[in-house]
Write a structure and sequence with these properties.
Length: 655
């Protein structure tokens, strides 16, 4: 391929509504990137159907044809110095050809924010997907719940990377007629919301397939006494197979889903049914085994939902618990084995279903759960290996999963991982993470400078040196047992913080001097990740310094010649420049940024459940600072300093 330059593009009006929508999508993208689009002149862009006279002529000139795998979503893109043709046999094919064309056009420098000449690549592309279904599974039941506007943005962006399935995850956050009280006010999807999203997504060739848990993960329904008789254990997490009313409840849910989300599928979940066999079904499980009881319930659900004429998707947990039960499952169900970590081979997670003639999709993970920023090294490796195995063994879909286990996850931090999943599902074979990393910043953020990509690499390096878990972010470094762990990790903190701070500087530079940058909310999400990572390192470093400083002051407090030294040691703990105040200020600053990023995508509900943790930590370090101030005042009045434990500090570990 070669590059050409043009002052403008002119998009020839398409002949049907679907292609006109694709043309408008292209026009809006170019305008956002300050690329001139004129009525005539410049490089002509034409969207064609393969059966049209102009489409047939262009294909003959290029000696190209549409093979069978290309019919549904494939396209041909012919880019010449004075004309670009996007040819498809279907509306989706034309749309996906347009998405590729966007990536072939480099607009003006985004730091100028001025309309200017554009460069574009010339050549011929013949392309189609490796997997029929390419999706993102988004957890909407563990805290953050997006606004409809943000869900539309998700769909629009995902579609631009050829994702064709969006699967929101529901335990109790979908509003059901006659059961509205279980859905949290302000944090659930209404019927009107659902219909609005389905209509919007269809224009972008995205199918919405919600997952409603129909077996486990149902505590937030079963905690209500109306459902007491349906629970395996009192107010537990699992529906009890065999209980009168269980199948009626399931049919009620999924008949509404079928009406509101007209896709060929219903996703019944059925993963992690840990309570099964611990309550009402204990005798049955003890007699027959966990696997057969589990498989029988899935078969019952299949029978119950048969009148809805949809194929059932379910998580492939049974491959771990009892492979022997798999052949008894209905053959028209689709199993989705999920693995979120590295394996040398994923074949054994897929083969039990393949050998039973059950279709599979594969579900890798974004590695975003319970961490301050998704662990990209884990996600890239897992997605790359699992999707390749799925393609090789005949899986027809891939579903990259996003989970918010502790209620703190923010989707604007997840784009790097989920878009690699999109690439892996479209491309045949094993996708290359390095090539993806080089393209991410310019494609997603419109940042040709490479600074966003460098920041992402720096964040990955920081995560290899600083434990990025949310538990670590909230950990009180003066708590019992923390010191042994901190002594072990402290040698790595300085280097880890340097990587996090380098990432932060790069991101702030891009935000400040690139008015043409895109996805600024996602850029804020990366900034939040860098600040939280750096703060973990700072918190653990400063905690150690305070413990050491007080220990020294305590030992030297009676030496008149060292009085100034003791005072400064104490002031280093609490004063205008004290470490207690640094940690208070750090939590306070990050609290405000977290709130900003949350509200850029989510509804307010549940936010206070996270912010209260910031408030408690701010209060903790404020109170500790005040306590040290009281000790300093007493010491200055010639009172003795108490032992570290009485002052609220741990004793430094030996050595």
């Amino acid at each position: 391929m070669a590059q050409s330059t043009t002052k403008s593009f002119s998009i020839v009006p398409a002949r049907n509504e679907d292609d006109r929508f694709a043309a408008e999508d292209l026009r809006q993208d170019l305008a956002q990137r300050q690329v001139a689009v004129t009525a005539t002149g410049g490089v002509r862009v034409v969207l064609l159907r393969a059966t049209s006279p102009e489409g047939e002529r262009t294909l003959r000139e290029e000696q190209l044809t549409f093979d069978a795998p290309m019919h549904d979503e494939g396209y041909v893109l012919v880019s010449r110095p004075h004309e670009i043709a996007v040819i498809g046999e279907s509306p989706a094919g034309v749309f996906y050809g347009v998405q590729t064309l966007k990536q072939l056009i480099d607009g003006p420098d985004p730091r100028t924010n001025r309309v200017g000449p554009a460069k574009f690549w010339t050549g011929t592309i013949r392309d189609w997907p490796a997997m029929r279904y390419r999706g993102v599974h988004d957890d909407l039941s563990r805290g953050p719940f997006p606004t409809v506007a943000f869900q539309k943005h998700q769909i629009q962006v995902l579609a631009s990377y050829k994702v064709n399935l969006y699967s929101p995850y529901f335990e109790h956050t979908l509003q059901y007629r006659g059961q509205l009280f279980t859905a949290p006010p302000g944090s659930s999807l209404s019927e009107s919301d659902a219909k609005e999203l389905v209509t919007f997504a269809s224009r972008y060739h995205v199918m919405i397939v919600p997952e409603q848990e129909a077996f486990g993960h149902l505590h937030h329904v079963l905690k209500y006494d109306e459902f007491t008789d349906l629970a395996e254990t009192p107010h537990g997490t699992v529906l009890a197979p065999g209980q009168p009313g269980t199948q009626q409840l399931i049919y009620k849910w999924f008949s509404q889903i079928a009406a509101d989300f007209p896709s060929p599928f219903l996703h019944i979940g059925a993963d992690e049914t840990f309570d099964l066999g611990k309550g009402r079904t204990k005798q049955e499980v003890d007699k027959r085994g966990l696997g057969p009881v589990y498989a029988d319930f899935l078969t019952q659900i299949h029978t119950t939902l048969a009148p809805l004429h949809r194929r059932l998707l379910f998580w492939g947990d049974i491959a771990e618990s009892d492979k022997a039960a798999i052949p008894g499952l209905p053959k028209d169900m689709i199993a989705i084995p999920w693995i979120y970590w590295h394996k040398d081979s994923y074949d054994n997670d897929i083969l039990p279903f393949k050998e039973a003639d059950i279709e599979t999709w594969v579900a890798p993970g974004d590695a975003n759960w319970r961490v301050v920023y998704p662990i990209a090294k884990t996600a890239l490796d897992n997605i790359q290996g699992f999707v390749e195995a799925g393609q090789r063994l005949g899986s027809t879909g891939e579903l990259t999963t996003v989970w918010n286990d502790d209620g703190e996850g923010l989707f604007n931090q997840d784009w790097f991982g989920v878009l690699f999943g999109a690439a892996a599902g479209w491309q045949p074979g094993r996708s290359d993470p390095q090539a993806y990393q080089k393209a991410f910043g310019v494609c997603f953020f419109n940042d040709p400078s490479g600074r966003v990509d460098e920041a992402q690499r720096e964040l990955m390096e920081a995560q290899s040196l600083i434990n990025p878990s949310n538990d670590n972010f909230w950990l009180d470094p003066w708590s019992d047992g923390a010191q042994t762990m901190l002594q072990r990790v402290r040698p790595r903190l300085h280097e880890g913080r340097l990587h996090a701070e380098r990432a932060l500087e790069l991101l702030l530079e891009v935000e400040q001097d690139s008015p043409g940058i895109r996805e600024r909310d996602a850029l804020k999400g990366m900034e939040l990740g860098a600040r939280r990572l750096d703060f973990i390192g700072m918190k653990d470093e400063l905690a150690g310094e305070m413990i050491d400083a007080y220990s020294q002051a305590y030992k030297l407090q009676s030496d008149p010649a060292r009085r100034t030294e003791v005072r400064e040691l104490l002031y280093s703990i609490s004063s205008m420049n004290g470490r207690c105040q640094d940690l208070r200020d750090g939590y306070s600053m990050i609290r405000n940024l977290y709130r900003e990023v949350w509200l850029s995508e989510n509804r307010p509900y549940w936010l206070d459940n996270v912010l209260v943790r910031y408030d408690l930590r701010i209060q903790l370090w404020q109170q500790r600072g005040e306590k040290i101030n009281d000790l300093i005042e007493g010491w200055q009045r010639r009172k003795g300093l108490p032992e570290p434990k009485a002052a609220g500090l741990p004793t430094p570990p030996a050595g």
